[in-house]
Design brief:
- The chain has 71 residues and is of the alpha+beta class.
- The chain has two helices and four strands, in the order βαββαβ.
- The chain starts with a strand and ends with a strand.
């Protein structure tokens, strides 16, 4: 299990953050997620044996947002 932080652009309200959390929690291998519209960040506990950070980015992109791993 590793923790990854993603920068997310395009969120406009708290509902956007909830939508992202709900979608990420449905991904296999995601154990926990916390998204903040105010910080434009999502922190995700991810099992790399099941999914990758790129899979998380793809899920966020499918919702209409832009995401990138914060180094």
């Amino acid at each position: 299990m590793t923790t990854h932080v993603f920068r997310i652009d395009g969120m406009h309200c708290g509902s956007c953050a909830l939508l992202i959390d709900d979608a990420l929690e449905d991904l296999p291998g995601v154990r926990a997620t916390q998204t903040s519209m105010k910080k434009a960040r999502s922190t995700v506990d991810l099992d790399l044996a099941v999914n990758t950070p790129e899979d998380v980015i793809a899920a966020i992109t499918e919702l209409g947002y832009t995401a990138a791993v914060v180094e």
